[in-house]
């Protein structure tokens, strides 16, 4: 394991409503969130664009990522694909485990599952990957991150009890957003210990997530998007949001499943850098809700 820094990564993304008049509004919000997420990571950045609705001309999953800032990897020629993608995930990285120069350590990551299409996933945090690999029989990693071990455990798990079982096994900081490749109009969101995650819904019923609630307020200031709800997820929250994929049906995105669990952190995980970029008010409000369990510390 290579521990690079104690910085925090940034998560952001959108699940589109099929009833939005102009897909460009949500696309502008997504790109703005990516630019704001640079405050939580400049080692690498990436986006995943996922298809799913008939007639949108975008099938499967396209991942674009590279070293440096989000603004360095984002290209305007991707806007047409972003406008068509029912789901878009984004990530900015501050490396805590795994070399920042190795492409395999950048997110979003595509991770397979036996007999399934696998997942595309993002993670903000730092967990004990060694403990996960010693406890569970996981495939050999392709990189050096803790994120890959978490994604390997989540790949192929669909029911909330199976997902929360994995989330309860994590020791450390974690916020996650991932998509099952064969269910590309649905996103799994989870906040385990500490790592923040906010969810917002706009006036067109698009659903967004981000590592900092302030970003949504900035998006409102500089784009045409107006949010009707902005909520910080509490520690120990899991939800699956999106649309049911059914022939001839166009549903608004909604919460399809939800569950709670007890997250576990290490004493050293409680660090003010968890709230990098937060306003004092947002930080104090979130800190007042913390309820994770502390892992036992070995005594020499």
From TrEMBL:
Q: Which organism is it from?
A: Actinomadura physcomitrii
**Enzyme class of the recorded protein, top EC level:** transferase
| Enzyme Commission designation | 2.6.1.16
Q: Name one Pfam family in it.
A: GATase_6
Could you tell me what this protein is called?
Glutamine--fructose-6-phosphate aminotransferase [isomerizing]
Q: Which residues form the Glutamine amidotransferase type-2 domain?
A: 9-244
| Biological process according to GO | fructose 6-phosphate metabolic process; protein N-linked glycosylation; UDP-N-acetylglucosamine metabolic process
UniProt keyword S-adenosyl-L-methionine present:
no
Q: Name one GO molecular function term.
A: glutamine-fructose-6-phosphate transaminase (isomerizing) activity
The alphabetized UniProt keywords are:
Aminotransferase, Glutamine amidotransferase, Transferase
PROSITE patterns, per database record: GATASE_TYPE_2
Name the catalysed reactions.
D-fructose 6-phosphate + L-glutamine = D-glucosamine 6-phosphate + L-glutamate
Keyword Transferase assigned: yes
| InterPro entries hit by this protein | GATase_2_dom, Ntn_hydrolases_N
